[in-house]
Amino acid sequence: ANLCEARANGAQLLWRRELNLGQANAVKLMVIEGRRTAQGTLQMIVMGRADQELVLHWAGLDQPAGEWKNPPHGWSSSPENSWGTGGASWETEMEALATARGWHAATIEAPCDRDGLVFVIRTGDSAHWIKDDGQDFMCFADEATTLTDVRAIVKKRKEEERARRKQEKEEQRRREREGQRSSPQKLKRGGLSTTTIKEPKMPTRPEVIKRKDWNHDEIKMHAGALGHAGAAGNVAGGSVDNICNAEPGATKSLMHRYNAASDLIPQCKGEGEAGLVAMAVWFRFMALRQLVWNNDYNIKPREISAAQLKCTTQLAALHKDDAGMRDVTRFIMATIGRGGDGDVGQRIRDEILVVQRNNECMGGFMEEWHQKLHNNTTPDDIVICEAYLAFLKSDMDISEYWRVLTEGGIDRARLESYERPIKQEPTPRPGQKVALIKDFQNYLKILKSVHSGADLIECIKTANKGLGGVSAALNYARVAQNGGGDAIQLLSACVDARHELRGAGLANPTDQEWTRELLYLDLSLDDVTRRAVERAGEANYGIEDQMKLSGLVMENLALSLPTSNEDIVLALIEWRRVEEARRDGDAQWALRAKAVVDRVRLAVALHADDVAAKMQPAATEIGVACGIEHWAVDLFAEEVIRGGPAFALSLVLSRLDPLLRAEADMGAWQIISPVPAVGYVKHVHSLREVMNEKFTKPTVLVASKVGGDEEIPAGAVAVLTTCSVDVLSHSAVRARNMNVLFATCYDEDVLNGLAELDGEAVSASVAGGDDVVWDIVDASAVAVGTGASASTSNVPKGLKLAKIPFCGAFTVPLDEFKKGVVGAKAINTLALNESLGGGVIPSWINLPKSMVIPFGTMEHILDDAINADVKTDLASLVAAIDDSSETALERSLSACRVCVKRIAPPAGMLDEIQAAMVDAGIPPPEDEDRWDMAWSALTDVWASKWNDRAFVSLRNVGIDHADLRMSVLVQPVVDADYAFVIHTVNPSSKDKADELYAEVVMGLGEALVGNYPGRALSFSINKTTGETPKVIGFPSKSVMLKIPRQTLIFRSDSNGEDLEGYAGAGLYESVPMDEEETIHADYATDPLVWDEGFRTELLSKIAEAGVAIEAALDGVPQDIEGVVKDGEIYVVQTRPQV
Q: What DSSP string runs through 447-482?
C-alpha cells in the first residue's frame, strides 16, 4: 500500500485488488489500484512481483467485453518508456522498484470518464502472458464494472449467434450451389451481364532474387529541392489563399475536391515548387481525414473516379514535363487514389448490388453501407471492407471488425457521421461465410482500384500489359508482400522492380497516362519496401546482413527522391565499394563504413529539416485557415517524415551503427575537449538557440544539434551532442580554450539517458580516454559562484584591445606588414615568407602572394562625405543592439551588417588597391563588374564584425566590441584539390606534445573552417619518429567547394584574434570574390580515401610541412591552414595554436 501511495501523487483511491497468483507463476503477486487524480483523470497503478522483466500490454476500453481501442488523447505513463504495437494496444516497460526487491510497477493516467483501461502483463521475453483467471484485467472508475465477468457476456453472445444460425438454415441450403457459381457479374441498366473479368496471368512461385548490376550513376539527380522556388518565408501565399478559398466548395464531395485541385494545379505550379507543396499539404490533410469528404451531397462513384483520373493525370503530366517537380508531384499522388474513367467507379455501385442479391443480405449493416456507397464512396470504404472481411474470416468475431476499423482510423462516431450513417454492426452469417469472403475479396479489389494508389496487385494488373508481363522481381514482391520469405529478399525484389520501372519509362517519361500507371506501381512497391523494413527489424541479422539491408534501403530512398537524391546516390556508390573492401579483407573496412553511415544519417537529417522547413509553414497557414485540429497541424511535418522512406533508412542505420563501431574498435564517444565538468543538465534542441544565454549556474548542455560554428555560451561547462563535429571546428577550439567538456556521442540511447536528467546536478568526466561517464551528485557538489563567468576561467580577465588609428594608406605591401597596422595572419605570412627565403622551411612549401587593407580603413572611409548617412545610421544601429534574446540579437546585428554593405569607396581608393595588387603579383579584377564583386567581398568581411558568434564571444570575455578593428588580407585563391588544417600538437591528447593532428577535405578549405556538416578525413602522426600517418576517421562531409575560375579571397584579420590565452580565430568571415560552387563529394573515386600509397604520401607531406613551420616559428605550436594543388603544398596562413 505504501508503494502504491508513493506512486499516486495524491490521487484519490477508488478501489484496490490484491492477487496471489502462486509461486509457480511468472508473476507471483499482483496489486492493482484504480484512482482519480485532482485533474479528474483515471489513474491505474499495476504492481507485480516477479524474478524477470515485465511489460504492461494495455489499451483503452469503452465497456466490459468491448474491443481494445487506442487510449484517449492526453494519456501518460510512468515510466515514460511506452510504445505502440501497431494496433490499438500500447506497451509500457514496468520499472523495477529499487525500494522493494522483486517488485515491478507501472502507472497509467488517462482522461477517462465512463471509459476505462484494459491490460495483460507479459514477461520481457514474451514467454508468459498473465491474465485475470482467463480474461483480461480491466480498470474502470467503478469497482463493480472493473470486476465484471466477461465470460458471461461472451456466452450470451454465442447463444444469440446459435439462434441466428438456426434461422439461416434455409439460406445455407440455398448456398450449397456456391461451387457452381459463375465469375463475378456486372450490373447494367438492363439487368445482369455475365461478362468475365480477366485476370492477368501471373507466375505463382517466386524465385530467389538474383540482383542485377544496376548503374547507380543513372539514377543520380541533383535538380530540385522541396519547396525551393516561389516562396516568401517558405509559403507560397497565393497558392495557400487559393486553396483556402476553394476549401468550402471542396467539402461537398470528393468529386468537388478533386475537381477543385485540377483547377488549382496550374496556379500552384505558377508559384514554383512551393505552390505545389501547398497543394501537397492540402491533400495530406485530406488523406488524414482532417478535411470534410462529403457534406450532404449525392455523387455517383463514377463521377468521383473520373475526377480522380483528371487530377492525377494532370499531376502525371507535370511529373513528366518538369523534372524539378518530381519529388512533390510524387508526394501528392501518394495521397490520392488512382481513379479511372468509364465503368471503373460505377462498378462500386453495381457490384455491391450483385453481392447483396446473390447472398440475400439486403438489410441491417449491409444496407446502411450500401446506401453510403451509393451516396458518396470514399477511401473509408476500403477500411470498412477490410474490417468486414476480418469479421467473416474470424468466424464472425465482432471485435475483429472493430479492431481493423480502429487501426484504419475509423471509430463508431465517424461511421455515424456519414450523410448515410452506418449505425449497425455486421450480422453473423455463418452459412454464407465462404461465399461472402469470396465476393468481398473481389469487391475490395474494385474499391482499391478507385481509391487506393498503393495496392500492389491492382497496380500490377493495370500496368501488366505495358510492362510485357510480370518480371521475377515484381512477382516476388507480389507474392511475399504480406509475409513469407526473407525480408532482405523482399527488399531486393522491390528495389530491382523499381529499377525496372525506370527502364520502362519512369526515368525519362514521355506519355502522361503511362507515367501515371508507372508512378502508382512504383509507389506501391515503395509501400511494400517500408513494410519489409519493419519485418527486418524483427530479424536477428548479423553484420553482413545488416550491411546488405542498409544498402538496399539506401538504394530505395535514392529511387524515392527522383529530383534530389545525388548525395544519397554518391553515398550508395561508396557503400558498394565498402562492401567489396570488406569481402577483400580491408583492415579499415569498418572505419570506411562508419564514415558512409555518418554521411547518410546526415543526409537523412538534412532531408528531414528541409521537409519540415518547407512543409510546416504551409501546413500551419492552411491548418489555421481551415480549422484543422491543432495536433494534426503541429505534428504535420514530423508525421510526414516518420512515414517516409528516409525514416525507414534512419531506423536501419541505427541498428547497424553500434555493430560498425564495435568492428572499428570505436567507443560510443568522440572526445573533442577532454575536461571534467560538474553542473546542472539542460537539454536543448540546438546549441545555436542558447549561444547568447548567460547561464547563472554551471550547465551541462545536451544539444540535439551542433553545427560547429557556434560560440560556447557563458556558464556552460559541457556540451554533449550526437552530431559529428570536426575536432578543429570553431566550437571545438573555443571549448578547449574555455576548459569546457565537449564530446560527440554516437549512441542516441546513451545520450538520451543523460538528457532525461534535465535539471539534475551531475558530475561528468572522460574515462579511459574515449568514454564520457557521469553520476548524479548533490547540488552542494556544484561549485558556488561558478555561473556565467566560470566557463571563461581559462581566458585572462581584463583583456583590452588597443585603439588602433588608420595608418594613412589604403594598402600595405608584404614587406611592410607590422604590428599595429595589420593583423596576426599577415604578420605570420611575412614570417613564413622570410623563413622560406632564408631556407628555414623547405622550398617545396608554397606561399600565396599577399597584400593587406590595414586596420582602421573602414572607420576612416566612414568619415568621408560619401558615407555620411551610413555612418549616422550605423551609429544608431550599434547603439540599439539588443542581446536580450538570440532572436533579438540576430535581428539587430543583421541590421548592422546590412548597413555596412552600403559603404562606398571614396575617390582613388580602388585605384590604390589595384596598384598594390599589381605590385604584389596578384591579378586584379578585370573590369568594373568584377571590381563590384571585389568591393562586395571586402565589405562582407568588415560586416562580419557584427556577426552573433563574434559579438557573444567578445561580450563574454569582457572585450569592448567598439575597439575591434579589422584588417583584410588579400590573396589569390588556389584552386585546391584538397584543403587541410593542422594543429601541430594534438588538441584531444594534451599529454602527447609530440603528436600532430590534422584534418583534410576535398576542394576549398571553407568546407573545413566554415564548419560544414560532417567530418573531414582526420589523421595523427608522431612528429619525431616519422611513422606512417594513422587515419582516425574517413570523411563524411556531403559537400566540397570549388571556384571554377581565377579569383581573390579577402581574409578577416582582426585585432581581436590570437590574443594571449584567447582563441578568437574563426570568429570573423573570410570571403571569396566569386561565390563557391557547392558540389556533392564523390568519395568512391577519391584516391585520398581508396589509394593507400597516395594517401600515405600526401598526409606525410602535410605533416612534414606542419613540423617545419612549427620549428621555423620558434617551436611554438601552430594552427595552420593550407591547400594541395596537383600534389603541391600551399600554406595560406598560420597562427599560434591555443
A: HHHHH-S--HHHHHHHHHHHHTS--HHHHHHHHHTT
Q: In degrees rounded to 5, what are phi and psi of residue 777?
A: -125, 165
Task: Give the separation between CA 1137 and CA 1116, rounded to whole angstroms.
Answer: 8
Cβ–Cβ contacts within 10 Å for residue 205, how many? 7
pLDDT in tens, 813-849: 999 999 999 998 899 899 999 888 777 889 999 999 9
CB 682 within 8 A of CB 699: yes
What is the structure's pLDDT at 193?
36
Rounded CA-CA distance 859/964 in Å is: 11
Are 1138 and 1062 within 8 A, CB to CB? yes
Name the DSSP class of 106.
Answer: E
Coil, helix or strand for 540? Answer: coil
* Alpha carbon 319 to its chain's center: 25
Q: How far is CA 330 from the centre of its chain?
A: 19
Residue with cell 446502411: 368
Residue 158 has pLDDT above 80, yes or no: no
**What DSSP letter does each residue of 593-634 carry, written as one string?**
HHHHHHHHHHHHHHHHHHHHHHHHHHHHHHHHHTT--HHHHH
Residue length of the chain: 1138
860 is catalytic: no
- For 167, the enclosing helix (H) or strand (E) is helix 150-167
Percent of the chain that is helix, strand, coil (3-state, to 5): 45, 20, 35
DSSP 808-866: S-S-EEGGG--BTTB-HHHHHHHHHHHHHHTTSS-TTEE----EEE-TTHHHHHHTSGG
Q: Show the cell assigned to 819.
A: 604590428
Alpha-carbon gap, residue 406 to 412, rounded angstroms: 9
3 state SS of 546: helix
Residue 795 — very low, low, confident or very high, per pLDDT cuts 50/70/90?
low
pLDDT over 90 at 317, yes or no:
yes
CB count in 10 Å sphere of residue 820? 12
Residue 228 phi/psi, 5° resolution?
-80, -15
Beta-sheet pairing, 761-767 with 677-686: antiparallel
Pairing outcome for strands 116-123 and 129-130: antiparallel
Write the single-letter amino acid at 217. D
pLDDT tier, 153 (very low <50, low <70, confident <90, very high otherwise): confident
Q: Please calculate the CA angle 508-511-515 and round it to the nearest 5 degrees.
A: 70
Confidence label for 457 from pLDDT (cuts 50, 70 and 90): confident
AA letter at 142: D
Q: Which residues contact 604 (CB under 8 A, 6 or more apart)?
A: 557, 646, 647, 649, 650, 653
The alpha carbon of 36 is separated from its chain's Cα centroid by a whole number of angstroms, namely: 39
Rounded to whole angstroms, the Cα distance separating 410 from 382 reads 11
Per-residue pLDDT at 419 exceeds 90:
no
DSSP 704-768: EE--S-PPPPEEEEEEEESS---TTSHHHHHHHHTT-EEEEES-HHHHHHHHTTTT-EEEEEEET
pLDDT of 161-214, one tens digit each?
777 767 766 666 565 554 444 444 433 333 333 333 344 444 444 555 566 677
Cell for 173? Answer: 441450403
For residues 412 and 416, what is the distance between their CA atoms, to the nearest angstrom? 6
pLDDT tens-digit readout, 330-345:
999 888 877 665 455 5
- What's the mean pLDDT in 1054-1067? 74
Q: What CA–CA distance (Å, rounded) separates 644 from 657?
A: 21
Q: By the 8 A CB rule, do 1102 and 982 touch? A: yes
The pTM for the full model equals: 0.73
Helix (H) or strand (E) holding 5: helix 2-8
Q: Which of 1003, 1028, 1032 is nearest to 1015 (CA)?
A: 1032
- Among the listed residues 57, 451, 730, 983, the single catalytic one is 730
Cell of residue 738, nine digits: 574555455
